[in-house]
Amino acid sequence: MCCGYQSGGCNWRGRVCGEIDLTVLRDLLTPDAGADRVVPPTGFTARLTVFSAGAMAFLAVFALALSLAAGRVAHSWGDALARSSTLRIAAAPEEMASQTATALRVLQTTPGIAAAQALSPEEQRALLEPWFGPDLPLDTLPVPQLIDITETSGGYDATGLRLRLSAEVPGAVLDDHTRWRRPLVTAASRLRLLGWVSILLIAASTGAMITLAAKAALAANAQVIAVLRLVGATDTYIAKAFVRRFTLRALSGATVGTALAVLGILLLPDAGEESGVLTEFGFYGAQWIWPLFVPPLAAVVALLATRSAARRVLEELA
């Protein structure tokens, strides 16, 4: 069923209102020298379309890499902190050894705990060194004893363990990392969402700029369009020429922008294991297929934007 605009026949307006079908794809891939001459091959609209598509594709690849990296970080942080806990024992120096031994015995007999190990003074010094420096006199300070707990996949009953520890090791404090895990995972998840929102905004901005470029090209060629109509050219023929030319320009520009972005990601230096989200930035394994979707997506956005612009401008020039 067609909708409203009759100039050039039902087929043209039906394509504008409907989906991208095989006929549209055939029109894009089939060269038509006569139709291509309708659209100027150069000019500021051509440069604007290629540049905007390339720049937006470049940004989209980096936004996609950021979103995927944030997802990996959220998953790794959540898994790492969910499977570990820390027991802190604060006691007098003469009681520290006995309370540590009692705590280890309680932990080793608790279902859901795979391993429990008391940190050595050197390991505790290494943990405190980033805040207090390498010359920390650990032996003269009332530093609590830390016990690293590794959980099984099913986890353990934290409430029950706290009750046992309060009875047998009064100076022990159990930290299951919940207060640390949730904010970190939430922040990484929101960063991933921000990446996807950025991609949507980039696509919308690309469509807006291509729409402006297409309208400018159509308006600048109003006299040519009028002559074409006088010699029998339909609006379908004219619009198809503009849609094909702007879609291919966007595709070529987005391909170059995507290639440059992928090259830039490949050339990024190693950020090291301590750099958080930067360590995971980029694409891994099968994720490298995702940038390949950016140029076709840019072409689809350009096709829809040019199609809409051509319909409106041709209606105004009718």
Write a structural description:
With 318 residues, this protein is an alpha+beta fold. The chain folds into two domains: 10-77 and 191-317, no CATH class; 91-170, no CATH class. 65% of the residues lie in helices and 7% in strands. It contains eleven helices and four strands. The chain has a four-stranded antiparallel β-sheet. The model is unreliable at 1-20 (pLDDT under 50).
**Quick one: biggest sheet?**
4 strands, antiparallel
User: Which sequence of strands runs across the widest sheet?
Assistant: 2-3-1-4
Rg, Cα atoms, Å = 32 Å
SS-derived structural category = alpha+beta
Shape: rod-shaped
Given the structure, what is the number of helices? Answer: 11
Low-confidence stretches: 1-20
* Total domain modules: 2
Number of strands: 4
